[in-house]
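W.,

You were right to be curious about this one. When I first looked at the sequence I had no strong expectations either way, so I just let the prediction run and decided to look at it fresh. Below is the sequence, 60 residues in total, followed by the output.
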Amino acid sequence: MSVTTVYQTTCRFCESIEAGIMLSFVFIADFFAAARVATKASNAAMSGDYEEAKRIIETL
């Protein structure tokens, strides 16, 4: 193998790792956004405002 081939293979490997990490960041951000909305709806329901809780959940 030439040095160029090894370098290109390593770069592709690193790029695929970076893409996987970025996808996991997106997943984590989506998870916390959904958890925030669920908490907001839960707080509305606990205060007795069920219609507001339903409206909050439907915005997902």
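Here's what jumped out at me. The chain has a mean pLDDT of 92. And, maybe more interesting for your project: Helices lie at 3-46, 50-58.

Coffee later to discuss?

I.
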